[in-house]
Design goal:
Blueprint (H helix, E strand, L loop, with lengths): L1 E8 L2 E7 L6 H9 L8 H10 L8 H10 L13 H8 L23 E6 L16 H8 L4 E8 L6 E3 L9 E2 H11 L8 E7 L3 H15 L24 E5 L9 H19 L5 H7 L1 H6 L5 H5 L3 H4 L2 E4 L7 H4 L9 E5 H19 L3 E5 L13 H4 L5 E4 L6 H9 L8 E3 L20 E11 L1 H4 L13 E8 L6 E4 L10 E10 L6 E8 L7 E9 L6 E8 L5 E13 L1
Parallel strand pairs: 3-12, 4-7, 7-8, 8-9, 10-11, 11-12
Antiparallel strand pairs: 1-2, 3-13, 4-5, 5-6, 14-17, 14-21, 15-16, 15-18, 18-19, 20-21
Helix pairs in contact: 2-3, 5-6, 6-7
Length: 572
């Protein structure tokens, strides 16, 4: 048993013994059950995979792959696995909590039948007011599997070029062509399914011509150009593999007169005040109404006549908000499909009376939800309000932080991490789902938190405490519809880099199809300001039962090299 010392003062050190991590008692019992004379053969291991781990299609080749992964260890025996080798397999990369990464949802349905991994202001590196614009956040998002990238298009200072920036703020611009090239070079590294670029367009007609030329030259055959200006139904992700789609409102002539701009802005501001029942300062409304201003353009025949043909023909997903009240916004036209954008506040207000109408709308059309303008720190919001009402594009600040972003990352680990998750059947049924009705319990998830390891390899010795090893505890819970939300925590284990908890929890789920399992590890502090020790979120719909190794991630969602938990899942 090794030791670790912490310097308390010039003449005194605290010495702590570092124990060797041992298998939990349940693991020892399982090993005895599936081994003979202290050795687990290939067939024994396959039996364990099928009968206990629930991997019903496991073969001898799968068992052999596990044997091969352990051969470099001194504890491996050619005759089979001893207890220590079996324990190392349970904590290894081949025993993760989700099925091996592959696309397994039906990808042949219309685009409206899927949730899309969606970014908001994808070019910003930080906050919404003063951070830089760059291609780096776009590249990072695409490499994480994000499939919808948003770009705000504005005239440059000389009015003869197009730049990407957050209008009405102090954020620095980035060149549009750089953004388009970044998308082209990184669009299909994480997934071969289509990338949608949403343009928030503030351009005059001559600059829309420039955009049309840049987009066409940059993407070439990658660009999806529909045969008609108005699609009756969206194509499927399968038919759009390695294609780039453009989504924006149909263009119209830029109104140059200051008075007309002023009138337009006042109308938009008035609409928003009527909707929210409150007034906003000028600076706030310029930021808050950015999406409203773009989407608030009425879909009128005369607008369609004043268009830039080349630019218009690039648009495969038409965006727009019809004139009038919410019922008009959610109107369904059997002859064409479109995209509607609502702020998180607008959606919450709309769901109080029109939840079923929203779901019916999203069965054919696309609904994009975006963060309210007051989220200047690039924070995010509860995505389940949108998902439970069928919203396909719940747009997040991917450069943000916090539990909502972790949940978003967790949800899109499903379906091989391809950025498209098939909506549950109840959101697509003719018998329209009512999210306001409490449903009976459909599944019960039982979780046992056994132990953890790896922090001593990922963090410096005094990262959590200057004078002793860390005191870790675990928070476990469910993010989902209101009836399913729950959070529990283990006891804190004092002065231990390899804590053992052996605690059990139970979660009753009414809508498991939309539920995400959350884990956060914290280091206990008497002040209540606990130190962060890792997190992960996992879609319940794809959890593998049995004893699993769960890798932990940092605040940004990047996986630690070594820190992980050993957890058992039972789903009844």
């Amino acid at each position: 048993m090794s030791r670790q010392s912490f310097k308390v003062c010039f003449c005194f050190r605290r010495i702590f013994k570092l124990r060797v991590l041992e298998p939990p008692e349940e693991v020892k019992i399982l090993f005895d059950q599936y081994s003979q004379n202290g050795t687990m053969s290939l067939d024994n291991l396959r039996g364990f995979l099928v009968e206990f781990q629930g991997e019903y299609n496991a073969t001898r080749d799968d068992a052999q792959a596990i044997f091969n992964s352990l051969k470099h260890l001194n504890i491996f025996s050619r005759r089979g696995l001893h207890l220590e080798a079996f324990f190392r397999y349970l904590l290894g990369d081949l025993n993760g909590p989700l099925s091996p990464s592959r696309v397994h949802h039906d990808m042949t349905q219309p685009l409206a039948h899927y949730f899309l991994y969606t970014g908001h202001n994808s070019y910003l590196t930080g906050n919404q007011l003063s951070s830089d614009s760059s291609v780096e956040p776009i590249i990072k998002a695409l490499r994480r599997g994000v499939r919808v990238i948003e770009l705000d298009l504005w005239p440059g200072s000389k009015k003869d070029e197009v730049e990407v920036r957050h209008g009405g703020t102090l954020t620095n611009p980035v060149d549009l062509l750089k953004c388009l090239n970044a998308i082209k070079d990184n669009a299909f590294q994480a997934s071969e399914y289509p990338v949608v670029i949403t343009f928030e367009d503030h351009l005059p007609a001559n600059l829309q011509d420039q955009v049309a030329e840049m987009v066409t030259k940059t993407f070439g055959d990658m660009l999806y150009r529909p045969e008609t200006d108005q699609l009756r139904e969206f194509p499927s992700p399968e038919s759009l593999k390695k294609k780039v789609m453009i989504s924006t409102k149909p263009p119209k002539e830029y109104l140059e007169t200051p008075s007309s701009k002023s009138t337009k802005r006042s109308k938009i501001s008035s609409k928003k005040e009527q909707w929210n029942g409150e007034t906003a300062s000028k600076s706030d409304s310029e930021i808050c109404d950015k999406d409203d201003e773009d989407e608030g353009e009425s879909l009128q025949e005369e607008d369609e006549q004043m268009t830039v043909p080349e630019y218009r023909h690039l648009i495969s997903i038409n965006a727009g908000k019809p004139k009038g009240a919410l019922q008009n916004w959610l109107s369904i036209d059997e002859k064409k499909v479109r995209r509607l954008s609502l702020s998180e506040q607008e959606l919450e207000n709309a769901t109080r009376r029109h939840g079923v109408d929203i779901i019916r709308f999203t069965q054919r059309n696309l609904l994009r939800v975006y963060p309210k303008g007051t989220r200047i720190t690039s924070s995010n919001y509860n995505p389940f309000v949108g998902w439970a009402h069928g919203a396909q594009m719940v747009a997040f600040n991917m450069q943000g932080y916090g539990k909502h972003l972790w949940v978003m990352q967790g949800m899109f680990k499903a379906n091989g991490g391809c950025g498209y998750v098939k909506k549950p059947d109840f959101l697509l049924s003719n018998e329209v789902f009512d999210p306001s009705v409490r449903l009976p319990v459909k599944k019960i998830l039982k979780v046992t938190i056994y132990m953890g390891e790896g922090w001593d390899l990922d963090f410096r010795r005094t990262h959590f405490d200057m004078y002793s090893p860390p005191d870790f505890f675990v928070k476990v819970g469910i993010a989902g519809v209101p009836a399913d939300k729950a959070m529990y925590k283990t006891k804190a284990i004092e002065d231990d880099w390899q804590p053992v908890w052996n605690e059990k929890f139970e979660f009753k789920l009414t809508v498991p199809e939309l539920a995400v399992f959350r884990i956060t590890v914290l280091e206990y502090d008497t002040s209540g300001q606990h130190d962060f020790g890792g997190q992960t979120c996992l879609p319940i719909s794809e959890l593998r039962t049995g004893i699993r190794a769960i890798p932990l991630h940092d605040r940004k969602g990047d996986k630690y090299k070594n820190a992980k938990l050993l957890v058992q899942f039972e789903l009844n």
